[in-house]
């Protein structure tokens, strides 16, 4: 029993002393300004223009495919199935219903 206690004491005391003498990397080097400047510049000069280009692309694609006319309504049995009423309004209109673009089961309102 004493031998086990002595062995455990030596194992644990040796690991504590080994880890206690190794300084962490962040404690040794105190200057992180170059990394911060690098990632700030990457964000400003790569990220912001990328977001602007993607926004412009999406807006131009939307303008190219934007039509004022809506498709003809064809009543299919599997579309606009109402098993129970919506809990708002008359129960037939969805929550964000647009009478110009969203059709009811009977057809367009406008």
TrEMBL record:
Alphabetized InterPro entries for the sequence: Cyt_c_oxidase_su6a, Cyt_c_oxidase_su6a_CS, Cyt_c_oxidase_su6a_sf
MF terms (GO), sorted A to Z: enzyme regulator activity; oxidoreductase activity
Matching PROSITE patterns: COX6A (PS01329)
Major location (coarse): mitochondrion
GO BP: mitochondrial electron transport, cytochrome c to oxygen
Topology class, membrane: Single-pass membrane protein
Pathway: Energy metabolism; oxidative phosphorylation
Subcellular location(s) of the protein: Mitochondrion inner membrane
Any one cellular-component term (Gene Ontology): mitochondrial inner membrane
Keywords: Membrane, Mitochondrion, Mitochondrion inner membrane, Oxidoreductase, Transit peptide, Transmembrane, Transmembrane helix
Family membership: Belongs to the cytochrome c oxidase subunit 6A family.
PANTHER family (alphabetical): CYTOCHROME C OXIDASE POLYPEPTIDE VIA, CYTOCHROME C OXIDASE SUBUNIT
Name of this chain's protein: Cytochrome c oxidase subunit
Organism of provenance: Riptortus pedestris
